Amino acid sequence: MNDVLSYLDSADILLGTLPSRKQLTGIPEAGASHTVRIRVNRTMPFEFVANLMPPFSGLWGAGVRFDFSDYDAALSGLGEARDADLHIFWMDWRIYSGSMAASDCASWLKERISRLREVTDKPIWVNNWAESGGEGECLYSDRASDRGWFRSLNAALSELAFGEPGIELIDLALLAQEDASSFYDDRNDAIAGYPFSDRTTIRIARHLGVHLLPASRNPRLKAIALDLDDTLYGGVLGEDGAAGVRLTEGHRRLQKSLLRLKQSGIMLTICSRNEAKDVEDLFEARDDFPLRLKDFSVIKADWQPKAGNLNELARQLNIDCSAMLFVDDNSVELLKAAESLPELHLLRASRDDAFETLRKLLHYPGLYQLRRDSEARNRTADIQAGASRERLRRESSDFNSYLAGLKMVVRLHVNEMAHADRLYDLSRKTNQFNLALRRLTQEEARAAFRREEHLTVTVGLRDKLADSGIVGAFVIRLKGEEAQLIETLFSCRALGRDVETLSFAHVLEMLANRGVKRLRIDARTGPRNAPSLEWLGRFADAPGEDCPLPDLRSRVAAACGNHPAQVEVAT
Amino acid sequence: MREEAREQVRAILSEVLETEVPPEENPVRNETPGWDSLTHIELILRLEEQFRIRFSAGEVSDVQSMDDLVRLVEVKS
Prior knowledge:
The complex is a heterodimer. By secondary structure, chain A is an alpha/beta fold. Chain A has 22 helices and 17 strands. In chain A, the strands form 3 sheets. Chain A has a 7-stranded mixed sheet with strand order 16-15-14-13-12-11-17, with helices on both faces. In chain A, strands 2-1-3-4-5 form a 5-stranded parallel sheet, sandwiched between helices. Chain A has a 5-stranded parallel sheet with strand order 8-7-6-9-10, sandwiched between helices. In chain A, α1 crosses α15. The longest helix of chain A has 20 residues, at 198-217. The relative contact order of chain A is 0.08. Chain B is mainly alpha-helical. The chains are: A alpha/beta, B mainly alpha. Chain A binds chain B through residues 20-22, 45, 47-48, 51, 186-188, 190-192, 194, 198, and chain B through 37-38, 40-42, 44-46, 48-50, 55-57, 60-61. Chain A: It comes from Cohnella thailandensis.
């Protein structure tokens, strides 16, 4: 319990108002469950940032170990530290602004990245540059000042990061917007060639430690469970009534940010000690609330213990508790939840300052998004349809009648390169139905669609209640008459309808049509992928061994029975 | 005040250099292992935060020893 309290206290300091250097040194050292090895190829010092990162990465259990290149404006030593988990290009772009066009500079960097790509497929981060220039900047057009050069460079770097898989921007231009007046410090620049202020350094360390690093290493969180009273608004619904609770500017902005998180793919839920009817009436009555009742995938408003309700929320969303963040202003509720559900993520809302709650939410590790989520729009509607599916299942006489009643259409896409980002997402996000747990990099996800070496089938699903989007994938490496199923992934939203088995049967048929005789299926036991292993156990005795394709086909076909879904193949 | 300031500066310098500075010593920047430009900035930032003061660019580069820092801290505090 003390550990949880200590964690909550640390999170308050690290994630809220920008902490001072002294506050950072006072944070108790967190035991790291793993260490990320980071190679920094640089033209200016990175040590100031590196020294401040451990408290931030420690918040989600990661240690960091750095390996620095010499200062080298030509970036010539890129072959070193091949075993690093992450490579950073830490560039003082001012060095190049007087001698190269911005577009040439970006092209040169692209060539350097290609060179590094020859030895690593790990993520690569590159910093851009704040556009604001020196004193009296307002007197000069962007053509007459260096500002124009940096603006062009930043556009070219954004394009580079957008087009090349596995490259992310350390967006200094964005960070500068948060605190433009004290972004630079001439004194640091004069003495160490390090242009940034102390506050900027802390800001960069936090951005790397709680945004970019967890986003590069771990699946994004899937859901947020929100308390209501003194969290989403000020006051107590049961005492103040719907008209009496307060929506301060901080609460309004908190709700708007939550709405944006929902639009980005995070599912919102309510976990509140209130009467369900009162909660419905509240959202009905308060049209000034940016959040509406329909924005919540599931609502648990009653007087049951919150830990049980959080577990039930996760069950209804079909996700693991480790993919959910619980936000509550009451430390006791957070402690109780942690006791029952140790994997749950926790954030303490600031009862008297919704802006501080917002700041903490915006820095919570695991919420940062690297790429747009193409399935975000489908997700809440699909989850809400889940309740109707459950009802239909209860009312159906047997499983097959239930499936028939759904009027499902399964659409199989063969080597559809447009689904590369979705495959990457599925590989990183799915836990329960992730058979080989490869956690593909973006590079690997793209490579999986190269026609000559792979058969990669992505699975779309819709039924009469909702379009679930692309919910699954099979990645198969082809080698003559032999093939290897190197990854099998299904979104938890699609489970319970045997779509995975039906799709697999068709994938095996495709392999047979290509002359494949034997299939090896990769599987690895992880902390939460038992459902996928149990599924495989229905057809294959020993994962990892070659299996004659005809035998496998007959077993899978038998398991499918007469599945009533319509199957379409898009080529 | 001087002794108190000296003690705090010594403690911060010890932390930044990651080695205990003996109370009777006055480490000199160019002769002290580890007191390079990077640690110098770190030291300045820590002192500014601790004493809620700000050094000018000239002062930062003019500092040559721990006693120089103590004098500056005394004047500015």
